[in-house]
Amino acid sequence: MTSITRRTILLAASALGAVGLTAGIAFADLPVLAKKDTYKVGFAQTESNNPWRIAQTESMQAKAKELGFQLVYTDAAGSAAKQVADVNSMIAQGVDLIFLAPREEKPLIPAVMAAKKAGIPVILLDRNVDQSLAKAGEDYITFIGSDFIDEGKRMAEWLVKNKPDGAKIIELEGTTGSSPANDRKKGFDEALAGMAGFEIVASQTGDFARDKGRQVAEALLQAHPDANVIYAHNDEMAMGAIAALEAAGKVPGKDVLVLSIDGGKEAVQAVVDGKIAAVVECNPRFGPKAFETMARYAAGEAIEPWVKNIDAFYDPSNAKDEVANAY
Ligand code: GZL
């Protein structure tokens, strides 16, 4: 009994399509990936302006090298438009598959659709696209990444538990339009909605960047001198906020609690030092799971629409023991 795999169905569907018959099979639209010994793979990165991005890229490059695959790497330098152009360039080069970390949810839709039209499968890493415009299993294979809503929710729950009398919160948002910024805000804000004594007094983007985070924190601390918590959507902005607090003569960890997401070594060490109160991890080491998912797809497995990363949590109870493992 030959096993009817997804791949068999797809190849049959494309053959039927070739003779003008419609197979009408659910995932017939998704480009296939032939099972080969080696591949030419694209990885379209958003930028390289922070340790998280650099760690993610290094993880992808290391795994591709270990497998002996050719990796076509591009860096969009913070521009969604350039990232679209980068993907189109990969399509023109005829890569077998594209790993894409869409900088923002909507502008990268044309790139996803262009790859699909060219018959090149796409796996989204770390950030997602707008689900009303493109879907896993139809337009791209899957999204591999964290549950950003849960990251925000876990941070809010930690805050309510550790500051039961309430807090006045400054929120430093990530890149406008990116899924981590949208969902870390949604998870945190919704978990605090209706919680007596908890008020988000200001919320503004620092674009996941350290210096922008510092500048925005400085301005918001001046406008809201009674704020006693800063919730940053990533470590870079949290470190910027610490610099802003110290420049204002405030003691991070005493006058104002700083909360962060990512869990890089610097931030986890800041927890040990008492400058950051708690960090939800968002592990950037995507290489192993990215290429494992690609191999599963090539073998004909039906891939789940979301390959979820599990995030650790760091606070004074475990930071000292965990800091060596942080990226
Ligand atoms: C999250 C990732 C975010 C990080 C930031 O998956 O997209 O982008 O949290 C990074 O540090 O810039």
Concise description?
With 327 residues, this protein is of the alpha/beta class. The chain has eleven helices and twelve strands.
Verbal overview:
- The protein has 327 residues and is an alpha/beta fold.
- It folds into 2 domains: 6-144 and 284-308, Response regulator (Rossmann fold); 148-282, 3-Layer(aba) Sandwich (Rossmann fold).
- Helix content is 40%, strand content 18%.
- The chain has helices spanning 6-18, 51-67, 80-92, 109-117, 148-162, 179-192, 210-223, 235-247, 265-272, 287-298, 319-322; strands at residues 40-45, 70-75, 97-100, 122-125, 142-145, 167-173, 198-205, 229-232, 257-262, 278-281, 306-308, 313-314.
- The strands form 2 sheets. Strands 2-1-3-4-5-11 form a 6-stranded parallel beta sheet, sandwiched between helices. Strands 7-6-8-9-10-12 form a 6-stranded mixed beta sheet, sandwiched between helices.
- The longest helix has 17 residues, at 51-67.
- It is elongated and about 60 Å long.
- The model is unreliable at 16-27 (pLDDT under 50).
- The site of beta-D-galactofuranose has 14 residues, from α2 and β9.
Looking at CATH, which topology of the largest domain would you report? Rossmann fold
Overall pLDDT, averaged? 93
Strand numbers in spatial order across the main sheet: 2-1-3-4-5-11
Strand and helix order: HEHEHEHEEHEHEHEHEHEHEEH
CATH architecture call of the largest domain = 3-Layer(aba) Sandwich
CATH level 4 superfamily of the largest domain = Response regulator
Number of helices: 11
The Cα radius of gyration reads 22 Å
- The CATH class assignment of the largest domain is Alpha Beta
The number of distinct β-strands equals 12
Q: How large is the share of residues in beta strands?
A: 15-25%
What small ligands are held by the chains? beta-D-galactofuranose
